[in-house]
């Protein structure tokens, strides 16, 4: 393989730049040319390519977002769109494509491979950390730290005014990010889609905490928690959010002065943590190794701190196991 391409697609995540840097430099090390695709699959279809050399990825390891930019591209959901994309890649002499993104992007990649023979390898990047076949995805650690930082700041004001705060975290339908940040941030209650909860119980626990001398309460709720009558979508109205609904319940049932904070897109930004840079560097390099070894339709991940090459289909279709023990531990420690 003489020439490969790399793109970032779907929701951006801190560490995507570090992953592109690793792809470029590992490929150069192996004597392979690398092309960057701007704006994900939209750039594949349009042939929006840029040649990347080792200097084009200087000073990006510490930058959030993605300098290749990301886009959502409906045309790539059609076989015609993918055929057009394959033609653009072939015209450029590109034999393999590294896709840095989430499960939607991986679905596009596997269809491209199956229909056109272009070799693809996926690199998991999403703050939600809901992709199977890898312990962690790029961006998750940074987002977790952003939420912890927010909890710390909000706790200062919560303590000063003896208020309860309901904070809403991202994660779409998954609660991995909320659980980890809630435990590490010392939240008094953690509500995630994977675990049923009883609002009376949550309120009683918060009340008991106050009676035992706590002067603040932080309830961290995942955006995807299902509340009766509420359908989760990522672009719903603010006052339909879980945080508002739970905050209102808490206030009505306990009489506590309650405030609501929806963290929103600050969770997707910021300089990647050391851990995310390390993960991105390892996975980006492993993706190049995999392509050069002739692999296709695969996703590189990290399992028990070792590089793991999985069938991309398993990563897309597999359900990442929710750690109930960790959830129980968070409950025990939050008293
Ligand atoms: P993520 O990769 O973060 O899950 P999306 O679901 O938005 O993000 O997917 C990113 C892009 O991948 C889409 O805009 C589209 O171009 C492509 N894609 C997603 N799902 C499919 C699909 N079922 N078939 C083909 N392409 C898809």
Question: Could you give the order of strands across the largest sheet?
Answer: 3-2-1-4-5-10-11
User: Which kinds of small molecule does this entry bind, naming each only once?
Assistant: adenosine-5'-diphosphate
**Distance separating the two termini:** 57 Å
Sheet-strand content, in percent, reads: 15-25%
Mean pLDDT: 94
Q: Uncertain runs with pLDDT below 50, 5 residues or more?
A: none
Alpha carbon gyration radius? 22 Å
Shape, per Cα inertia axes? elongated
User: What's the total number of strands?
Assistant: 11
DSSP summary: helix tally: 11
Helix content: 40-55%
From the 3D coordinates, which CATH architecture of the largest domain would you assign? 3-Layer(aba) Sandwich
Highest-level CATH class of the largest domain: Alpha Beta
Largest sheet: 7 strands, mixed
Summarize the structure.
The protein is an alpha/beta fold and 335 residues long. It is built from 11 helices and 11 strands.
């Amino acid at each position: 393989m003489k020439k490969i391409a790399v793109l970032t697609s779907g929701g951006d995540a801190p560490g995507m730049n570090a992953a592109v840097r690793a792809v470029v430099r590992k490929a150069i090390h192996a004597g392979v040319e690398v092309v960057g695709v701007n704006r994900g699959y939209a750039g594949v279809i349009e042939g929006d390519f840029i040649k990347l050399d080792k200097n084009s990825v200087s000073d990006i390891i510490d930058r959030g977002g993605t300098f290749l930019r990301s886009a959502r591209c409906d045309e790539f959901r059609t076989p015609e769109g993918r055929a057009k994309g394959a033609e653009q890649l072939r015209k450029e002499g590109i034999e393999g494509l590294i896709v840095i993104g989430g499960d939607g992007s991986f679905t596009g990649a596997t269809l491209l491979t199956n229909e056109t023979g272009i070799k693809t390898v996926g690199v998991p990047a999403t703050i939600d950390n809901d992709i199977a076949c890898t312990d962690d995805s790029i961006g998750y650690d940074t987002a977790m730290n952003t939420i912890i930082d927010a909890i710390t700041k909000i706790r200062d004001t919560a303590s000063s005014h003896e208020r309860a705060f309901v904070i809403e975290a991202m994660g779409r339908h998954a609660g991995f990010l909320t659980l980890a940040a809630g435990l590490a941030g010392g939240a008094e209650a953690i509500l995630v889609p994977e675990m049923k909860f009883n609002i009376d119980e949550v309120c009683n626990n918060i009340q008991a905490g106050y009676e035992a001398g706590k002067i603040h309460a932080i309830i961290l709720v995942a955006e995807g928690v299902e509340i009766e009558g509420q359908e989760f979508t990522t672009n719903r109205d603010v006052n339909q959010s879980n945080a508002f609904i739970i905050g209102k319940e808490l206030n009505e049932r306990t009489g506590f002065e309650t405030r609501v904070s929806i963290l929103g897109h600050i969770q997707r930004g910021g300089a990647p943590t050391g851990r995310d840079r390390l993960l991105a560097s390892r996975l980006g390099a492993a993706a190049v190794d995999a392509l050069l070894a002739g692999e296709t339709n695969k996703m590189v991940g990290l399992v028990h701190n070792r590089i793991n090459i999985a069938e991309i289909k398993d990563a897309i279709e597999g359900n990442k196991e929710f750690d109930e023990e960790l959830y129980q531990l968070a409950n025990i420690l939050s008293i």
